[in-house]
Amino acid sequence: MTRVAVVAGGGEHTGPAVALRLAAGGFDVALLGSEFTSVDKTVRRVEEYGRQCVTVRAELTDARSVAVAFGRVRTALGSPAVLVTCVGPEPPPDGLPEDECADEQRYTAVRRALRPVFVCCQAGAGQLLRHRWGRIIIVTEPVDAGENTWRTTRPVLDGLIGFTRSAALELARSGTTVNLVAPADRADDSRAPAHRAAGDDSAGSYADGVAHVTEFLVDERAVGITGQAIRVAAARADVPLLRER
Fold first, then answer.
1. How far is C-alpha 191 from the geometric centre of its chain's CA atoms?
2. Which helix (H) or strand (E) holds 214?
3. N or C of the chain: less Cβ packing under 10 Å?
């Protein structure tokens, strides 16, 4: 049986690294997003593993656009059994005053970061139910420093943890697991280079760590792991994290 995975969103490092690891594990891969970076290289490397790779443009905050995209994936590759959706918060700039206007901007940034996860998981869960087996993996990206970054990414992380636990309970009977992968609490856990070329298989980068975790979570041996927030060391000491108090 052909195994199909969808990778929605993701930066120029994490998304491709996950796609390549899934391809190496025998999955055909569909990349969903509104724009793609270094996509030709990723497609070519997936094909070198003997797997198919398609790119489908979709506005990940729009439910109709994502539903259409999943329909195209189904037509091109078949029904997906794995969904990896990557979240990259875009916080307001530092220096915002402590007033209602600033709070509204932060609220908008949080909502914009969370919306693609809800939309993609809603569309993807319907596809996974066809198999009576599935994996949903939500990935957050490390973000730059700043007080306003923390004020925005903290509610994003809390929202994702709550969503992951709720979705895991809801989908448990269908054989689908739902897990979250996020940067670890301490920025000094690793001194490896923060960014490597897209698809670089060298150990040490955050993207490579996420790819390793993804490879494990899609394995049959991970069937009992669901509703968890798994922390991966961020790559560089000056890249802060979605930290917890």
1. 23
2. helix 206-217
3. C
Radius of gyration of the chain (CA): 17
Helix (H, G, I), strand (E, B) or coil at 33: strand
Write out the two tokens for 208. 């490579």
d(CA 144, CA 219) in angstroms, rounded, equals: 32
* Phi, psi for 33 (deg, rounded to 5): 175, 170
Residue with tokens 């004020």: 151
For 61-110, the pLDDT digits (tens) are: 999 999 999 999 999 999 999 999 988 765 555 555 555 556 777 777 78
**Token couple for 63:** 């439910």
The C-alpha atoms of residue 79 and residue 73 are separated, in whole angstroms, by: 7
Spatial separation of the C-alpha atoms in residues 186 and 194, rounded to whole Å: 14
Task: Tell me the whole-structure pTM to 2 decimals.
Answer: 0.83
Indicate if the alpha-carbon torsion angle 32, 37, 38, 40 is positive or negative.
positive
